[in-house]
Amino acid sequence: MSFFIQQMTIIGVGLIGGSIAQALRDQDLVGRVVGVTRRRETLQTALDMKVIDEGTACAADAVKNSNLIIICTPVRSIVSTVKEIVPNLMHNAVITDVGSVKGNIVRQCETMMPESCSFVGGHPIAGRERVGVAASFPSLFQGSRTILTPTSNTPQHALALVRLVWEAAGSVVEMMDVDYHDQVLAATSHLPHLMAYNVVNTLSDLEEHLRQEVFRYAASGFRDFTRIASSDPTMWRDICLENRDGILEILKRFQGDLDHLIQRVDEGDGDALHEMFSRSKTTRDRVLAEHAVLRGDR
Question: What domains are defined for the chain?
């Protein structure tokens, strides 16, 4: 059988990497999949699940003879990973990533590309609190969005390949400027995650007797709001460091709104509080009505 992608390398075999490999396998779009991770148990799990055909801890070795390389590592290691594998890239190889920060990563990786090879920034807007290849499944991206961030240096054939891969996985692909992407994601993804982490930390720092009662009586609101605080701490540390400017800008805006809320509560201004809450409810109801993915209808 002649596969569209003869060999693909997944660097960082986890939820995202494992799921995209399974999605492409299910459609016979990829012939051979090589996985990279330093954890032996992860490699064995990926082999047992038939997510990959071969596993190694050496990224440079894994990319030999691969048409497509997908980097699924934490964002702060993407650039160093590209630097490591560049000497072994085959002619016309295409590299893409799945990081939720794009600006500096795309600019640095593009400058390292050999003449015949390409880097295409990518970010699938999909995931779960559970991480690791054992949690991966082929329909993860069905109905989701994937943002690609091509630049003036991106060859059209490379962009077309990466777009086809994500569309084949069931994702709706959109194009976005790299810096605008980081600004948008700071507001839509990074801020909510940081707020969830912070709420849990605030409650954890209460006096012991009060903390025990707080968590004892925590209901579904606490569970739902703080769900994303179960996400990978290493990933979110790296995101904060890599998208520092975008995150700081939105955090300061949030801080201003929080100060305004504190003032209204302190003054006992019921009318202002009702107006704030009504506006928020109206906005959320409208957004949910317009976006099926946010409603969970996918």
Answer: 5-176 (3.40.50.720), 180-267 (1.10.3660.10)
166: left (phi over 0), alpha (psi -120 to 50) or beta: alpha
Angle, CA of 79, 83 and 85, to the nearest 5°: 115
DSSP bridge partners of 2: none
DSSP annotation string for 175-206: E--HHHHHHHHIIIIIHHHHHHHHHHHHHHTS
Which residues contact residue 285 at a Cβ distance below 8 angstroms, ignoring those fewer than 6 apart?
Answer: none
Q: Dump pLDDT digits (tens) for 19-68.
A: 999 999 999 999 999 999 989 999 999 999 999 999 999 999 999 999 99
The tokens for 193 are 């995650």
Q: What is the pLDDT of residues 232-255, one digit of tens each?
A: 888 899 999 999 999 999 999 999
Question: Which of 170, 13, 175, 16 has its CA nearest to residue 99?
Answer: 16
